[in-house]
Design brief:
It contains five helices and eight strands, in the order E-E-H-H-H-E-E-E-H-E-H-E-E. The protein is α+β, with helices and mostly antiparallel strands and 182 residues long. The chain has an eight-stranded mixed β-sheet, with helices on both faces. Helix 4 crosses helix 5. It is globular, with a radius of gyration of 16 Å. 25% of the residues are buried.
Length: 182
């Protein structure tokens, strides 16, 4: 499975080689260490990236989560990582979405393009009713992105994720799929 959008290619994590994931994480270590959950000491190793790829296959098969890479047109560089978790109870039918954009590609235009493509995939192909995006209060890039796209601010989640060595609050944004009558 792959989605082509303009000059980019979105592919499931498990269809991308582990060495590309390792390079992406190493090159974006500052952002990953300061804006994502606290990592174990072996996170930046090829073996751990291979485990994530295996987990991606399992999550896709169970329809419990979807991890993607946004690749350059030639497929040689990962420009963004998308990680989502789907609530297994279909009566809830929501998905929590997190996006890490390579520090060299953190533009509103790129972010909107990727977000629009993912929303279309999740709402139309996966029939998700609501997308939630928890965002750190100091991540102005993501706050601007979700606000521009029409996500609604739902509130503050207090000390919900362990990031950079401490429990951090997140701002919760949501977007409802009004076309999903399930």
């Amino acid at each position: 499975m792959q989605i082509r959008v303009e000059n980019y290619l979105i592919k499931p994590m498990h269809e991308i080689k582990a060495n590309l994931w390792l390079k992406f994480h190493q090159e974006n270590r500052y952002y990953i260490d300061h804006f994502s959950t606290t990592k174990l000491s072996d996170y930046y190793t090829l073996e751990v990236q291979q485990k994530f790829i295996i987990q991606s296959v399992i999550d896709f098969e169970r329809d419990e989560g979807y991890a993607f890479g946004v690749l350059s047109a030639n497929g040689k560089q990962i420009l963004a990582k998308v990680k989502s978790i789907r609530d297994p109870n279909r009566n809830h039918n929501y998905l929590t979405l997190r996006i890490v954009v390579d520090h060299r590609h953190r533009t509103s235009e790129f972010g909107r393009l990727i977000l629009r493509t993912l929303i279309d995939y999740f709402f139309h192909d996966r029939k998700i009713h609501i997308l939630y995006m928890p965002v750190l209060p100091n991540d102005s890039y993501m706050i601007q992105l979700v606000s521009e796209y029409g996500f609604i601010f739902e509130g503050r989640l207090h000390k919900i994720m362990h990031i950079n060595g401490s429990w951090q609050d997140h701002l919760l944004y949501a977007l409802i799929n009004e076309d999903n009558g399930q």
